Structure formats: C-alpha cells, structure tokens
Amino acid sequence: MKVEEVVLPGVGRKYTVTVGSGDRIVIVVHSSGKRELQYFEAGEDEEPSAALDLTDEEARELGAILAGVLFHPEAVGDTQSKLGQKVIEWIRVLPGSQLAGRRVGELPLPQGAHLLAVDRPGAPLIPNPDPETVLEVGDTLVVAGTREAVEALKRSL
Amino acid sequence: MHPSVEAFALAAGLLALGAALVHRFGFPPLPIYLLTGLWVGGALPVEDLEPLPSLGLLLLLFSVGLEFGPDRLRSLSGKAVRAGFYDGLALPVGFFLGLMAGLDWRGAALLAGVIYVSSSAVIVKLIIDLRRAANPESEVVLGVLVLEDLVVALLLALLGGHGAWEVLGSLLLFSAYLAFARFLGPRLVRFMESLSDELVLLLGAGFTSGTALLFHGVGASEGVGAFLAGVIAATLGLRERLERLFGPVRDLGVALFFLVVGAGARDLFQGLTPAVVVLALLGLLVKLPLNHLGGTRAGLSRKRGLYSALYLVPRGEFNLVLGALAQAQGYPLVAQVAVLLVLVSIPLGALLIRFAPDIGRWLYPKGQRAKPAQAKAP
Question: Sorted alphabetically, which InterPro entries does this protein's record hold (chain A) (predicted)?
C-alpha cells in the first residue's frame, strides 16, 4: 500500500492511497472536518468511479470499523498492538516460509526484538520458548520490542 | 439610532436573499454579492456600512496570508512550481501590454500584477463549494496560488512607496516581518498555545489592523500588511485556531465588501473607455493558454490542464488592493481595469468552474489523453 500526502492550502490535506491491486482512493480531509472520498479503478486516472462525502463523525466511525475496533477478524494473523513506543506483533509461519523447520535459536532476531511465545494450533501456548524448539507451519510467533526492531525482523522474514 | 444599523439591515437582507436564490441551483454565492451591489448600489447608502467592508478586505487578506503564506512553499510539489512558472509568464506579458497602452514602467508593472494574480480566496471557496478538492488539478491550482500571492505581495512592497526611501522602507519592513516569522516564530508557538481563544481573537485583530497601519505609515499598501500579519500568525502555529475564530467575522465582512465593490462599480461604468475594456479582456485571455500549458507541463492530462486554467480565471482581493494603489498613484486606467476584471472574472469564473467538466467533455471527447493510456496492471 502506498500513501501520498499533499497539503491543499485553504482546503486541508489530500491523501492518495494506492492499494495492492492498483486501485486508488483519494481522501481529502477538509479543515472544516468534512471528508471527501473518490475511488479510481486501476489504470484510470481521469474520472473517479465513485465519490462519497462524510462528516467528521461519520469518517471517525468508518475509520474505527476499518481499523477493526468493533470487530477484529480472527483470520488475520499479522496484527500489531501498541504499547507506547514498543509494539507487540503476531507473525504467522505460512506454508513455504523459510521459518518452517528452523530452530528458535537460529531466528535472526535484531537487537531490541524479543520472542515472547510461540502459539501452536491445538497445543498449549509455548511461553518463552527454548532455543531448541522447532517451528512448524501454522505457528504464530509473538514478538515484542521497539518498533524499528520488530519492523526489521518482519522485513528480514 | 446610528444610520449604519439601517444600512446594515438592508445590506444583510439583500445578501441573504441573493445567497438563498443561488443556493437552490447549487451555485456559489460570491458572484451574487457583487451583482447585488451592482444592481441595487444606487439605492444603498454604501458609506454608512463602513468600516465593515474595509475591515472585511483586511481580514480576507489576513486569512489569505494565513493559508497561502511562504511557509507553504516547503510543501509545494515540483508540479505546482512548474505550473507556477508558466503562470508567471503573464507578468512580462502584462508589463508589455501596459507599455503598449502608454503607461510608464510603474503603471505597467501595476497592470502586470493586476493581470497576473488570481484570487486565492475566491478560488478556494469555489473549489470547496463545487466539491473539486479531490481532483488532481486542484492540487496544482492551489500550489500556483501560493506562488502568485507571494510574488504579488513582493510586487506591492516594491511599488508601494513613491520615492526611493519609501520603497526601501517598505521593503525593509517586509523583510523584517519575514525574518521575524522565520526566526522567532517557532519559539513563540508554545506561548501562543497557552492563550485563551478570546485573547487570541483580540490579539489577532489588533495585530492585523496594526500591521496594516504600519505599512500604510511607510507609504506601502495596507493590504500587504494584513497579508503579512496572516503569514506571521501561521508561523506562530495559530493557523487552524484563527481560521476558526475569524472565519465567521471575515465571511460577513467579505460579503459586505464585495457588495460595496459592486456598488462602486456603477461609477466605473460611466467612465469606461474602450482601452479599459480591451485591456481587461486581454488580461482574461492571456492567462488561459499559459495556465493550460502550465497544467499539462505539471503532469495533468490536457483536459485537467484545461480545468486548471479555468479555475484560475477569478481575480479578487489582490486586484482590488492593486487597483486602490494604482488610483492613489495616479493610474486611473489600471484601477479601472483591476475593478472591471474582478467584476467580470468572478461570475464568469464561477460559471466556467461549475461547467468545467462539460466544457472538457465538449473539447476533449472521451478517451483522449495527453499521455498514452497505460496498460492495465495484470
């Protein structure tokens, strides 16, 4: 996902969000609190397929729904929880992942990132796993640490 | 009872009626204020409305400075700068037109400013009212307006005084204000945050009118003073707060101001000469191709480039400031062109922006683009 931010003097700010499929959403946040949304299909940059105006309140409600505040989908293994400057991250071992079959001791943990637990489906939670634990497909690693370290770990995987 | 109460009641009633009428047709109200003034100006005791209209213009320039100050330059994209360069070519063209019309260099420079500068206040309002903020051309247009306002503020500071000393004085004052904003602004932000809304409102009003007076004192235009006051306020971190606090007062003042401009234009039409009409028409026309070119050079499609050129038609606050300066310095021709441009370009511009998509469809039938259509991503 790519987000571009532009200041519109006298109006507010414009965010152009391009998602994986190439579709774009243009969001204008007015200084008055109003939001304007335009949806462009991939490859189309002239005319929006749809437009939507939201009041500040509606926009916040919609934002909360999108952020999963009201209903947090179970299917998503990859989530972040914020603890001030530190973050906790759940990293799923997907089929074909280079993590599968490796021992915990071999994990390329950057400085500042810690493996708290391994959650294996159908088994009790493995807290503070010892270095000899072998990871399997379907495991979820619970990693905590500074944002940079956790992001670096995610990138290296 | 003070006669202003009667005049105010009459004016506010007429403006409300006009605004309600156009609102039904989804049209922005600004041009109607002008036309109402033009229509009933003779019957309206305009002088009794003072000082609201004069303050309205100062507050309008203040809020333009607040939103379009030089601190916006940093967030300006390369696209907008490219479009602004082509837009700036209107200055030498306007200067040349002025010389052709028999003006000396100072008059020609004033005319160049009059032809060059579009109205940020009017265009922003039209973009918001007509829901065009999310469109790609709006970004370019608003960037161009930041550049225009800065150039014209400099031009006004340069042309403000008559003698060399006055010019120097106003330039020094101008630089002193910008330096203040640059170096002391960031340190005062926290202090300003601790002040109450009411104090900020009063300080802002005093600061704006005081700066205007100061600039008037050194022989420069008070409009530049109000604009710079807005620039300073923005660097003090007061942008959103002052917009919120001043917004309603400003809107009222601006409505009355445009009414008075419309009313004053009746005298203008009596002294209208062909030279004025020709210069105003050329002024309107010269920017269209320049801005169209600038828009396409900024990466917009030809259709969107055309929209951007149409958006930049309305002239407003700075034209009236330049016009007043020209009148005071003995260039009635320039003053008339300035006011005529405002009168014609605001209603015309509102129409053009409103129907820009239709005009675009008509000129560039579907499928035609400046750059070849990209293959759809798999």
Answer: AAE_transporter (IPR050144), KhtT (IPR026278), KhtT-like_N (IPR058776), RCK_C (IPR006037), RCK_C_sf (IPR036721)
Contact between B134 and A28 using a beta-carbon 8 Å cutoff: yes
Expressed in percent and rounded to 5, the helix, strand and coil fractions of chain B are 80, 0, 20
Structural domain boundaries, residue A45: 2-66
Q: Is pLDDT of A111 > 80?
A: yes
Q: Is residue A72 part of a domain?
A: no
B67: contact with A, CB 8 A cutoff: yes
The verdict on A40 and A100 lying in the same domain is: no
Give the residue from B131, B241, B303 with the most A CB atoms within 10 Å of its CB, the best one to mutate: B131
Query: CB–CB of B81/B127 below 8 Å?
Result: no
| CATH number of residue A129's parent domain | 3.30.70.1450
> Residue A27: pLDDT above 90?
yes
Comparing CA positions, the residue from A9, A33, A42, A26 lying closest to residue B135 is A26
A42 with A96, same domain?
Answer: no
pLDDT tens per residue, range B273-307: 888 888 889 888 889 888 888 888 888 888 888 89
Q: Does B131 touch chain A (CB under 8 A)?
A: yes
Name the residue of chain A whose CA is nearest to B372's CA: A43
Number of H helices, E strands in chain B: 18, 0
Q: Do A10 and B124 touch (CB under 8 A)?
A: yes
What's the total number of domains in chain A? 2
Q: Does one domain contain both A31 and A94? A: no
CA distances from B280 to A106, B23, B28, B55, B262 (A): 77, 29, 23, 27, 17
Sign of CA dihedral A102, A106, A108, A109: positive
Interchain proximity A11–B127, CB inside 8 Å: yes
Q: What predicted TM-score, i.e. pTM, was given to this entire model? A: 0.75
Q: Which residue has the higher pLDDT, A29 or B182?
A: A29
Residue A71 lies in a domain: no
CATH assignment of B53-363, among 3.30.1490.20, 1.10.2020.10, 1.20.1050.10, 1.20.1530.20: 1.20.1530.20
Distance of CA A83 to the CA centre of its chain: 15
Check whether residue A7 and residue A60 sit in a common domain. Answer: yes
Shared-domain flag, residues A86 and A151: yes
How far away is chain A from the Cα of B378, in angstroms, using its nearest Cα? 9
**Contact check, Cβ <8 Å, A42/B377:** yes
Within-domain flag for A41: yes
Residue A74 lies in a domain: no
| Length reported for chain B | 378
Does ipTM top 0.85?
no
Residue B40's beta-bridge partner residues? none
pLDDT, tens only, B205-217: 898 889 888 888 8
Whole-angstrom Cα distance, residue B166 to residue B185?
27
A43/B374 touch (CB, cutoff 8 Å), yes or no: yes
